[in-house]
Design a protein that fits this description.
By secondary structure, the protein is an alpha/beta fold. It folds into two domains: about 170 residues, Alpha-Beta Complex (Aspartate Aminotransferase, domain 1); about 240 residues, Type I PLP-dependent aspartate aminotransferase-like (Major domain) (Aspartate Aminotransferase, domain 2, 3-Layer(aba) Sandwich). Helix content is about 40%, strand content about 15%. The chain is built from 14 helices and 14 strands. The strands form three sheets. Strands 2-9-8-7-6-3-4-5 form an eight-stranded mixed beta sheet, with helices on both faces. Strands 10-11-14-13 form a four-stranded antiparallel beta sheet. The chain has a two-stranded parallel sheet with strand order 1-12. It is globular and about 60 Å long. The model has no long low-confidence stretch (mean pLDDT about 95). Bound molecules: pyridoxal-5'-phosphate. The site of pyridoxal-5'-phosphate has 14 residues, from helix 4. The site of pyridoxal-5'-phosphate (PLP) has 14 residues, from helix 4.
Length: about 425
């Protein structure tokens, strides 16, 4: 018999954030308009790019070099700019050669896990951003190790659980943090960051810090990059422009390597990431050209401040409305643009339903549910069929042990946003009472 042609870890590659789109499209074709709250693309939700950024892009396009390959690690001038900014912030000091560009962080994430030794494992947060957790699980063909972000403690990580799991599993070589976090909107406190650095030292781990939302932190929350407190621990920080500019279609992100010289094995691993990129020649050139231009423009940070204000305002509205339901745990996000709600234990059952007027949609939803369906997915599918609201369940979508769901704070019409959240609240109350 022929050998299998599929990688044994293939079943671990799940991305329910997009999978739910197929179901939603079918429902839409049956007559129910969809309110898309599933995916973190500000542009798809109607945000507009400021004219001055568009003008920077238009000008960059006049230069023929924008159409050329760039160096494998990324444009030198852009890496010089990033290294200079990093070094001005204090903390760890890097050179342009510690920076490697990718075609978006999705590309970086995929290579970071694929390039690990097959028995080396990274422990990450629960709930998890699925691109990390799926890629990590697929690389090892085994479920992703997680530490809990505790919904009963403002999503602070359970540090005891983290240490216990690290101690029990010598295969764990690194800790992943996503700061600010997707899906919870949690921002790691300085105290927690320092504890993670201490654990890394104690167990000789490296740290991966996904900081794609680092400039999307709300007023009143202190934000600390890993670089400021990493000391001599080997680490990889990840940044990108998909959420910041926002330019998700530009497919541009980069990683910064810290303390390569401290650990020969880590240094070799980072070289293997560079070599893997070399086989592909390089990453997208045009967005790299624009990073220093846009980020050094005096309008950039005020523009981000305005956007953050809007996300924070929507976060407050949603938290206020949903906190009125005693069966839910709702923590107000401190950054990024998501809110994750958890159902308290035992409040959901497999007999809960919502009325679905359209018979064909009802049949479709019921055909997708069976005895094994997670209870949060059951809620999400009934919500979708009944109201058209498309959110993402936690268990399947974010590799979580909690029943809950995530929605985005991207609806730019605040009145419509409020209405959507009220619809969500009323549907939850109806569902739990059914
Ligand atoms: C935490 C996090 N990391 C990485 C990514 C991937 O970003 P991109 O591939 O667009 O750079 C996302 C996208 O939603 C994200 O939320």
């Amino acid at each position: 018999m022929r050998n299998s042609i599929t990688h044994p870890g293939a079943d671990n590659l799940v991305y329910e954030i997009r999978e739910i789109v197929d179901v939603s499209n079918k429902i839409e074709s049956l007559g129910q308009p969809i309110i898309w709250e599933n995916i973190g693309d500000p542009i798809a939700k109607g945000e507009t790019i400021p004219l001055w950024i568009k003008e920077c892009v238009a000008e960059a396009l006049q230069d023929d070099s924008a159409y050329a390959y760039s160096p494998t690690m990324g444009l030198k001038s852009t890496r010089e700019y990033i290294a200079k900014e990093r070094n001005l912030e204090g903390g760890i000091q890097i050179t342009p050669d510690d920076i490697l560009f990718f075609n978006g962080l999705g590309d970086a994430i995929s290579k970071i896990y694929k390039s690990l030794h097959s028995s080396a494992r990274i422990i990450g947060p629960n709930p998890a951003y699925p691109t990390h957790s799926s890629a990590e699980a697929a690389h090892a063909d085994s479920p992703h190790y997680t530490y809990s972000l505790d919904p009963n403690n403002n999503w602070q990580p359970d540090m005891e659980e983290m240490e216990r799991k690290i101690e029990e599993n010598p295969h764990i070589v690194g800790v992943l943090i996503v700061n600010p976090d997707n899906p919870t909107g949690y921002v790691y406190s300085l105290d927690v960051l320092k504890k993670i650095v201490e654990l890394a030292k104690k167990y000789q781990l490296f740290i991966i810090s996904d900081e794609i939302y680092s400039n999307l932190v709300y007023e009143g929350t202190e934000y600390h990059k890993l670089a400021d407190f990493v000391e001599d621990v080997p680490a990889i920080a990840m940044r990108g422009i998909s959420k910041e500019f926002p330019w998700p279609g530009g497919r541009c992100g980069w990683v910064e390597f810290y303390n390569r010289g401290q650990d020969e094995d880590f240094d070799k691993y980072t070289k293997s990431l560079i070599d893997a990129k070399m086989l592909e020649v390089c990453s997208t050139t045009l967005p790299q050209k624009l990073i220093p231009v846009v980020m050094q423009d005096e309008r950039y940070y005020p523009y981000l401040k305005e956007r953050n204000k809007k996300y924070q305002s929507r976060a407050r509205i949603a938290t206020d409305i949903l906190s009125s339901i005693p069966e839910l745990i709702v923590n107000e996000p401190q950054g990024s643009f998501y809110l994750t709600v958890v159902f308290k234990e035992v409040v959901l059952s497999d007999s809960n339903t919502l009325p679905i007027k359209n018979y064909e949609i009802k049949r479709l939803i019921e055909s997708l549910l069976d005895d094994d369906t997670h209870l949060d997915k059951r809620f999400v599918y009934y919500l979708l069929g009944s109201t058209g609201l498309c959110v993402v369940p936690l268990k399947g979508g974010f590799n979580s042990t909690f029943n809950g769901f995530r929605f985005t704070l991207l609806e730019s019409n605040e009145e419509l946003f409020r209405k959507n959240i009220e619809l969500l609240r009323d549907s939850i109350i109806k569902y739990l009472a059914s």
